Structures are given as C-alpha cells and as structure tokens.
Write the structure tokens for this entry.
Amino acid sequence: MAVLDMLNTKYIILSPGEGAAPIAQQNPGALGAAWFVKEFKVVANADEEIEALTGFVPSQVAVVDKRFATQLNGLNISFDSTATIRMIDYKANHLTYESKAGSEQLAVLSEIYYDKGWNAYLDGKIVPHFRVNYVLRAMRVPEGNHKIEFKFEPPVYINGERIALAGSIILILLFVSLSFRELKATSVKEKS
C-alpha cells in the first residue's frame, strides 16, 4: 500500500466477490501532490532503491540512489511539523506549488521523475531536482515561503516552436506579397 500512497492513488477498485460489481474505495493513505519527509536513506543502486520500497513509510522517509546523493550534501533535516507544501496549479507541462517551512526541508513530489526536459524553479530561479523512491521527484526547499515550479522545456520542443513560428511568418509574408501582386495586377488591367 505504501507505493500506492506515494503515487497519490485516491481510489482503489475492489472486487467483492464473483458476480458482484466492482466497488471503488477511497484510499485514506494517499499522500497528495507533495509532502516533506523527516529523513532520507541513501542506497547503493536502483535495485536497492526499489527493494527499500518494501516496508517503508513514504510520508516519513525518502529512498535515494547514491547517484543522486550529492544533491543531499549538507542537508540536515530538522523536521518542521508546521511546514506545508501544496500544489496550486496543474497543467500538463507546468506544475506550481507553494511551500512554507521554518527550516530547510526535503520535498517529495508525487510526479514521475523524468530529467529530459523538466526544469525545477524556486522563486523563478532554476534549481536542481532528483529522483527518490525509484520513480518520484524530490528537491531541497529552503526555509521560508516559496513558489516552486516544474516546467517541461525540452530543447527539441523549443526549437520546434521557433521553426513553426518562422514558417508561419514566411507563410504570412508570402500571402501578403501574393495579395499585393494580385491587387497591383488588377489595378493595371483596370487602367488599360
């Protein structure tokens, strides 16, 4: 159940028995879009990371592959029970959160970690994020009130948008040029 909780699974469909209709049951343990953990555990590799998900409490512990351990250098979590982090806006390519904490925290976000194109921003400045619990995103959040954003900005997409814009401008210029020539040709015929 812990893995379903960290993936923010709100409902579980159960089959009460043969011939009975399936029932949707609410999962009271769903952790929401983001939360702060009390501690982290560094493991040797991805295999150990997935093994560590058995019997762990995702609301308390983040399991980190040692490849990402440098992101945790100097982090000494002093858990703040009044700290909050919540999602305030969701778009497929732009996620926005608000956080408030009295000390630096480690935030786990219930979003699949994919480093190719996703950038994390803290108060408008790009910051690193990393993988925890084998599949989720995490980042260090300093004390205070902050706006956290994740934007999908792959270079291929941005270049494609630029090419599409240039193509649209060329097409519009071509249309205007042809229209102007047509008007000019029509006025020459009318004069003769």
In short: The longest strand covers residues 144-152. The mean pLDDT is 93. Residues 155-192 form one domain. Helices lie at 2-6, 46-51, 155-191.
